[in-house]
Amino acid sequence: MLMLGFAGFLGILKIILMALAAFGLFDAAFRREDAFRAADKQNKVFWLIILGIALVVSYLFSILSILPVAGAVASIVYIVDVRPALQQVGGGRGWGRRRGSSSDGPYGPYNGGR
Q1: Predicted structure pTM score
Q2: What is the structure's pLDDT at 103?
Q3: Among the listed residues 79, 75, 78, 77, the one whose alpha carbon sits nearest the alpha carbon of residue 56
Q4: Which of 38, 41, 77, 85 is the most buried (most CB within 10 A)?
Q5: What pLDDT does residue 114 have?
Q6: In this predicted model, what pLDDT tens digit does every residue of 8-44 receive, in sequence order?
Q7: Which burial class, exposed, middle or buried, applies to 51 when counting CB atoms under 10 A from its CB (0-12, 13-18, 19+)?
Q8: Strands 104-105 and 108-109, how do they pair?
Q9: Are 18 and 55 a contacting pair, CB within 8 Å?
Q10: In whole angstroms, what is the distance from residue 63 CA to residue 86 CA?
Q11: What is the pLDDT at residue 20?
Q12: 77, 81, 82, 83: CA torsion to nearest 10
């Protein structure tokens, strides 16, 4: 019974690591190449390869081996370090970018009733 619970926990952890790598891969795929150079964070192809390998490795290997752990570290580095730098350089989100100010309403800018 305990081993079944442990196997279920490892399965959930494996799904979470795959989701992290997939999120990083899709986010990097929709970013502009020049944003990577402007943020001084390697290049787009490098991160696509690293995150793609992390996704494949987390799918193929057991969570108890070293390769999925290295893939998780690469995914976390992209999400915590590279992605915020790209957002600062690129001016927001990479995909689904919203244009306009944060004070814009559905019919234009909100000026506080003035």
Answers
A1: 0.73
A2: 60
A3: 75
A4: 41
A5: 58
A6: 888 899 999 999 999 999 999 999 888 888 888 889 9
A7: buried
A8: antiparallel
A9: yes
A10: 30
A11: 94
A12: 100
Contact 113, 58 (CB under 8 A): no
Residue with tokens 């150079």: 37
Q: pLDDT band at residue 80, thresholds of 50, 70 and 90?
A: very high
Q: Position 111: which residue type? A: N
Please say whether the beta carbons of 65 and 89 come within 8 A: no
Length of the chain: 114
Q: Are 75 and 51 in contact (CB under 8 A)?
A: yes
